[in-house]
Amino acid sequence: MFIDPPLAKAALAVDTNATEVLTYFVNKIQIGERSTPYSMASALADFEPGTVWLNQWTADDLQAKVGDDVELSYYSVGTMRQLEERTGQFKVGGIIAMDDPRSDITLMPDFPGMTDSENCADWDTGFPMDLDAIRDKDEDYWDTYKGTPKAYISLATGQEIWSNRFGSLTAVRYAQNGSEAQEALGKKLLANITPTDAGLTFQPARSQAAASVDNAMDFGQLFMSFSFFLIAAAVMLISLLFQFTMEKRTRETGTLLAVGIPARRVCRMLLLEGGLIAIVGCIVGAVAGTFFAETLLNALSTNWKDAVASATLTYHSSSSAMSTGMSMGFFVALATIWWSLRKLKKQTARELIAGETQEQGNPKNTAKRSTIIGVVLILAALGSIGAVLAGGGQMSPNSFYGAGAMMLLSGLALASARLKHLAKVGALGQAESISLRALGQRNAARRSRRSMATIGMLACGSFMIASIGVFQKDAETGADQPTSGTGGFELMGEASIAIVHDMNNPTNREDFYNIAEEIMEGVSFVPFRLRDGDQANCLNLNLAQEPRLLGVRPETLAGRFSFIDTMDGLEPGDNPWSILDSARDTLKLPTDVVPAIADQSVMMWALSGGDMMKSKKLGDTIDYTDEHGNPFKIQFVGQIADSIMQGNLIIPESDFIKRFPSESGYRVFLVDNPSERTEEVSDELNVALADHGFEWVSTTRRLGDLNAVQNTYLQTFQVLGGLGLLIGSLGLGVVVLRNVQERKSELALLRAVGFEKSAIKRFVLSEYLGLLVGGLLIGTVAAALAVLPTMLSPTADVPYALLGATLGGVLLFAGVWTLIATNLSLRGKLLEGIQKD
């Protein structure tokens, strides 16, 4: 009935003398106690604002004269398709004769349910009417004049009170007559109309698909980031093993220096030797890495399929990727070996031939330096964490890695200072205690580099496991709370065909959908208008180009979900959702910018393709096109914590209607009902609304499906952390075996003076269990402080019991390996060590 604004604009451009017409159905025209029911009223440009002109028939019926006050009552469509009866006040500006050209039956548009009716009793308008109010004279008017308007007002006034999202004109009229003029007008009109004006827009589907895939989630960067601590542990193990090799060959190295070969050349020879071994290791590692990657992808396609929305993943590698991986691995290994060879230049041939490999440096100075470094790093880490807490936000991955790395390094620096302090005390003979336990702790400082490498490997692995475990999410925990990821709702539904009535109105539920009211007791609905687009959630591995839009009235979500942050300048108050209404005026947004609120995961991951440098921040915008082809921007003004709303951008319903007027009704619903009746309510809605193609899902299940993606990735990263701990445990075992072998004579002396073998075993274990506990403690504490903002978040769901059990298992596992290594080292007759000496 209404002309789309772009079409109306094109039609008016054809002829500057075109006449604009807006005809509306009014419920009543009234003067005092006299009234005329159900009539057409036209708004034309010829009339003065504030006046109404009546045709002669209506003037006679109301006994109206110029200057009388007239009321026009009419329906206006409000929210949820609620009809609101409104009244306009006018003064009679004149009377129009029935044979006046303006008394034109064609001013009435093709009104569904009325135009073809023979009499008024047959009207089927789709809105409530009191047919008993129609008089015989009204029937006679219909028989004679049909829908000829009975009242006329100015076009400006009519558009002010009757315009709606579908348009502000019902006709555009031209003065030309005849078939030739009509044909010419038709050609001009077609020339002015573009496909976009008619609501037909063309999308570059191929380029959009290519951009989506090209910017998809980069798992390489993700796994590389989380493998950083594993790589660090591997570097420490390489350094440790090469140092052991060098210590066994000190006499050989010293001899080479003694016969005149320069230290630099000896280093190159050893570096070449280590490089050849590294090449073999890189080849083996590439093959093992390929197997690991295939196994991981197979797990993502089977047991962990929720992480990739049940997609089938196929392993593919290229020679360039393999070459790059091996080259980087070789470079890291070679750099580590070179670093281990530095101290060779500082020792003389005599020292090496004599087998002297004690560590150099003043324990007092190095301990002080390590303490200062540790304190500075921990202050820097606490400062960054405090800044996040003060801002009320959560750790971004970059901040997390930065704070975590600083905490880890500070712990290692302080541990190094402690070992050097123990070495200083022992060297000066100022024994704090003569117990075997104290001696064991001091012995850990004799080879501080070995001890620190062991602590570092264990700390890296435990840091990975402890920190990643904090981010595990359980959809069931606190699901009934309004501030949780479910918003306190029990059901979420999406329809193929929109619902146009207020589902919170019992009368509507019964009259239009035949829903059993006894089942709906205590049930409420929050409706959303939906504009289809890309799924911008964790289940979509590609980059979302235009995410789905949801239009909502902010007041319906008061108290629901948890806000992380809002744009500076906005005052959320008791209902942060209200910023959707206030942002335009407060931030002075241009008319082509629409405020939006999005889920944290959408802004951080879905719209960046996993690239943190491209993550969306508050104030950032995304380009969109409305249904008329007009470009506009969505600006992020608020961010909520991970929730069932993931994948959508939420905008004010008023802006949604302006941009997409043809999207009538509501297609997404959140349902709040008593939890014990969720299944019953779901079954009733499924049956009653079957024609609308609804899919109802439990909110905890939807949130669980979304969380499963993150949880699965975290499990894979914990596997990497487990490998780091495995490397650390292996390194600890190697250190135990090497150190005990070097100290066979020392232990034999203890046995000779009367110590039992079990006591000697406790002595050795006290030394290495201290390293084990120290490494795990440093990694765990560093992880806890790094993720402190996340742990203190109101939406945090930290599985403390699981984390404790995991770390306890790690401690037990590493302790068992330490015990095995100790037993292997102490096999045989210790006294033979003294006999050999």
Task: Describe this entry's structure for a reader.
This protein has 837 residues and is α+β, with helices and mostly antiparallel strands. Among the domains are: 19-173, no CATH class; 249-357, no CATH class; 491-705, no CATH class. It contains 27 helices and 17 strands. Strands 8, 9, 10, 11, 12, 13, 14, 15, 16 and 17 form a ten-stranded mixed β-sheet that branches. A six-stranded mixed beta barrel has the order 1-2-6-3-5-4. Helix 8 (228-248) packs parallel to helix 22 (699-742), helix 16 (448-470) packs across helix 24 and helix 24 packs antiparallel against helix 26. The longest helix is centred in the last third of the chain and has 44 residues, at 699-742.
Quick summary:
It contains 27 helices and 17 strands. A hairpin with a 5-residue loop joins strand 13 and strand 14 (631-640).
Keywords for this structure?
837 residues, alpha+beta, ten-stranded mixed β-sheet, 17 strands, 49% helix, elongated
Distance between the termini: 109 Å
Give the number of DSSP strands: 17
Form type = elongated
**Main beta sheet, described?**
10 strands, mixed
Our estimate of the beta-strand percent is 5-15%
| Integer-rounded radius of gyration | 40 Å
Structural class: alpha+beta
Helix share of residues? 40-55%
Low-confidence stretches: none
Give the helix tally: 27
Mean pLDDT value: 82
Layout of secondary structure:
Layout: H1 5-14, E1 19-31, E2 34-44, E3 51-55, H2 56-62, E4 69-77, E5 83-96, H3 136-145, E6 151-154, H4 155-162, E7 171-173, H5 179-192, H6 205-214, H7 219-226, H8 228-248, H9 250-258, H10 263-301, H11 319-340, H12 349-353, H13 363-390, H14 397-428, H15 436-443, H16 448-470, E8 491-499, H17 506-513, E9 524-531, E10 548-552, E11 563-566, H18 579-586, E12 593-599, H19 600-606, E13 621-625, E14 631-640, E15 648-652, H20 653-659, E16 666-672, H21 678-688, E17 695-698, H22 699-742, H23 744-752, H24 757-786, H25 788-792, H26 800-825, H27 832-836
Parallel strand pairs: 2-6, 3-5, 10-15, 12-14
Antiparallel strand pairs: 1-2, 1-4, 1-7, 3-6, 4-5, 8-16, 8-17, 9-10, 9-16, 11-14, 12-15, 13-14
